[in-house]
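Hey everyone, long-time lurker, first post.

I ran two proteins through the pipeline my lab uses and got sequence/structure pairs for each. Pasting them in order. The first:
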Amino acid sequence: MSRSSLTGASCSSAALATVAVCLACFFALAWLVESGSSAHLDQQAVLWARGHRATWCTAVMLMATALGSLPGVVTVALLASWAGQRRGLYLETVGMWLLLGLATWANHLLKWGFGRPRPPWEPLVKEAGLSFPSAHAMVGTAFYGFLAVMVWRHAPAGGWRLAAVGALLAMAVAISVSRVYLGVHYPTDVAAGVAAGGALLGLCLEMLEEWRRRAAVH
């Protein structure tokens, strides 16, 4: 078996393992929310964040949440598409947009299914709609995680690649944290969004590997 085949098989196994673990985490969190087991800790976490706000931190959290909003994500996706086209990453660019669309659609469906209201305690930003799972956390994890994987795979090795991957992962974390800090989500909303986004990311990476395998055969 060739080295490229082994690498592809390894990537596929990692992607499928990510899907399995993330789905297990999501269903566990969904059970906690539906059973009411997480209610007390969720409320305490939101109230604690509300009581520890600072001006500088609020500015950072507002910036992070903007990068996880639809306009922010689409803007970054357009820039990533331009960079990807320059490097000939056409398949990856298509996969990125499909992942964005799937994550957005799946989040709407899940929110409708669970119907959880948002926290009622004076959020710093106005948000309509339901709470579980967090769309910012779900889309942000899937999208910025995908970009981090693509940078790791296709950028030249070195300090800049490590810095870019670290920045993208930190961005996904900051987006998720910002939703609790701003008072628009409970921690379980965010954790479930991360889990669902991770599952979609693994699914998308497996899909890309399958496309490559089919292209190699033909």
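...and the second, right after it:
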Amino acid sequence: MSDGDADRLVIAALEDRRAAAIIAADVDTLAAMTDADYVHVETSGRVRTKQDFLETLRSGPGRFERYDIRENVIQLYGDAAVVTGVFENAYRAADGQCTAKTARHIRVYVRRSGGWMNVSHQATALDTAARSGRTA
């Protein structure tokens, strides 16, 4: 197995841990894998810091019931990894309403002395036409 293959396996495992931690609202796991300089861009365009992201999961008005990675492509560039793909999630608000979403994502990981750290996430919501592969 090449170093690149081993790194891809590590990143894939981090992606699985990240998704499971989001469902469990496991802030400690997410904090350990998220860099201090993390930038999180939501599908709405809102930008959050690491602290904002973790606090929303810790004490937000609702919780994720589902967070499924449907596709992930991991590309390595030396000490950086770019993960692109598609996820689906379902979020239950405090009032009981559940919102489901499908989105494309890009996440960037950087190799630090302690291992791979997630430094950035951006998501773009997909509409029905985009999910089916149709174009206008």
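Reply from user beta_strand_b:
Welcome! Quick read of the second one: The mean pLDDT is 92. The two ends are 43 Å apart (CA to CA).
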